[in-house]
Write a structure and sequence with these properties.
Shape: globular
Number of helices: 3
Number of domains: 1
Distance between the termini: 10 Å
CATH topology: Rossmann fold
Strand order of the largest sheet: 2-1-3-4-5
CATH architecture: 3-Layer(aba) Sandwich
Length: 118
């Protein structure tokens, strides 16, 4: 499964890449929406995006992806250190993962979405 991870913290990107690649996922990491390229989205099955970033927030990332991909957008997951009930997801996200996440937690979470895309 091809997964795009967008987060302004290189440590989170590195951990996500290492963990997900260990399970044979193809992982593309970007530090902001400005860094995302059209090629990143080809055959992308899942987008994990941080909620709070300096240039664009997670809602803006989700809006952009959904508009750009015109209804053919993969599922978009919000990652945040704030509890889910404190994040106004406004229907833009298909799921939520609390940071910091554990290796097992991330793998379990992705497995759920992998099952949805088969």
């Amino acid at each position: 499964m091809r997964i795009l991870v967008i987060d302004d913290y290189p440590d989170i990107l590195g951990l996500a890449r290492e963990v997900l690649e260990s399970e044979d996922h193809e992982v593309v990491t970007r530090e902001s929406l400005n860094d995302v390229r059209a090629l990143d989205l080809i055959n992308c099955s899942l987008i994990l995006t941080d909620f709070w970033m300096p240039d664009y927030d997670g809602i803006q990332v989700a809006q952009c992806m959904r508009e750009l991909l015109n209804g053919k957008c993969p599922e978009i997951i919000c990652m945040s250190s704030m509890p889910e009930d404190q994040v106004n997801m406004q229907g833009w996200f298909d799921g939520y993962i609390l940071k910091p996440f554990t290796v097992e937690g991330l793998l379990d979470f992705v497995a759920v979405f992998k099952g949805r895309t088969k």
